[in-house]
Amino acid sequence: MAGNIKLVVCKDDAEVAKKAAVMFADVIKAKPSAVIGLATGSTPEKTYAEMAQLHRTQGLSFKQVMSFNLDEYWGLDGDHDQSYRYFMNDHLFQHVDIRPWNTFVLNGKATNPYLECQAYETKIVSVGGVDIWLLGIGGNGHIAFNEPGSAVDSRTRLVNLTPETIAANSDGRFFKSAAEVPRCALSAGIGTIREARSIVLLATGAKKADAVAAAVEGDFSTACPASLLQDHADCTFIVDEAAAGKLKNAR
Ligand code: PGA
């Protein structure tokens, strides 16, 4: 499939973060009660710092914004320092004026994962859907914890992490050893993500170059979950030069 994905190539990760933060700021300025989708991982950290900076210096207000995070480790409490709830509080929520009760992160300790996932989907629908969703990409092409093989119409569910993802998250940036990484997570599905009105995927560094090339220029295939964004009406990849390194037609 000749993809619809819009590609923005930046010189480095600082420029990626600035561009992404401005895209979110524009959505929030146009609609102060915007529903935004958020991601965790190393890649969006600088983007959240930029958003916090826009809040401090330009008065960008998150007071009416509602947020939904993509995923959460199964078995981790929100106050565990490797949980994604903790990450979001630490990197963004504590630095802006978003109301804590308007931030939705799946509960990794829910009694019933099925009901937790259903409630999350229902909540998104009840607030009118997500206006703009920020994504990272795994070295294996995953989006959220939708590992290769995940269906295009998959919904929020309990998933198993692949060995590559466990290894990537225990390389010292997050968990210290693979043994500490939970084996499962709750993750928004690819179908859930595709329903966002606009999608912004960030990729930085040479480690992401193969996944970016497969997603943008490869087949529309569950082998590379991010390629399943190719037919989305409004999807932008913001990547640095290193992550764009394997694209044949970098625009
Ligand atoms: P990273 O993770 O930003 O830590 O590289 C991205 C992802 O796995 O989606």
Describe, in plain words, how this protein is organized in 3D:
With 251 residues, the chain is of the alpha/beta class. The chain has seven helices and ten strands. It has a seven-stranded parallel sheet with strand order 1-10-9-6-2-3-5, with helices on both faces. Strands 4-8-7 form a three-stranded antiparallel sheet. Helix 1 crosses helix 2. The radius of gyration is 17 Å and the shape is globular. The site of 2-phosphoglycolic acid (PGA) has 6 residues, from loops.
Reconstruct the topology from this structure.
Blueprint: E1 6-10, H1 13-30, E2 35-38, H2 45-58, E3 66-69, E4 71-73, H3 84-91, E5 103-104, H4 113-126, E6 132-135, E7 157-160, H5 163-168, E8 184-187, H6 190-194, E9 198-203, H7 209-217, E10 235-240
Parallel strand pairs: 1-10, 2-3, 2-6, 3-5, 6-9, 9-10
Antiparallel strand pairs: 4-8, 7-8
Helix pairs in contact: 1-2
Hetero groups? 2-phosphoglycolic acid
* Biggest pleated-sheet summary: 7 strands, parallel
Give the number of helices: 7
The side-by-side strand order for the widest beta sheet comes to 1-10-9-6-2-3-5
Considering DSSP H and I runs of 4 or more, what fraction of the residues is helical? 25-40%
What ranges have pLDDT less than 50 throughout 5 or more consecutive residues?
none
Task: Compute the separation of the termini in Å.
Answer: 17 Å
Q: Which CATH architecture would you pick?
A: 3-Layer(aba) Sandwich
CATH class: Alpha Beta
What is the molecular shape?
globular
Structural class: alpha/beta
Average pLDDT confidence is 96
Radius of gyration over alpha carbons? 17 Å
- The tally of domains stands at 1
What is the fold-level CATH name, i.e. the topology? Rossmann fold
Strand content: 15-25%
Number of strands: 10
Quaternary state of this entry equals single chain
H/E series, N to C? EHEHEEHEHEEHEHEHE
